[in-house]
Amino acid sequence: MPDQQQMTDRAVWSKRANRFQSRWRAVGGRLHVADGQLRFDGHRIDHALGGRDWSTPLTDISDVRVEGRRKLVEVELRDGTVERFVVRPAEAAAEELGNLARSANGA
Fold first, then answer.
1. What's the mean pLDDT in 81-93?
2. What is the per-residue pLDDT for 3?
């Protein structure tokens, strides 16, 4: 598995982000698209405090949208799972991620 720097170097898209690991726990880090994957890599300090990395193939993404007053970017997977991220600007990030996912899915 590539380390965070290698992933950043190969990324076709990359932004600082926070991922909601649970309803109350947000982990700071970076959201990347590289090698056909959407991947979140948490900061080292967050790892030490129980923060987890996350990834999924772009082909598993069924929808990307902006929701709520806090304008969270929601990534819905084909299995119905929804991952929530704070990424700024939210609308632009959702549009770019949606385009990359649609492209990976042949749409």
1. 98
2. 53
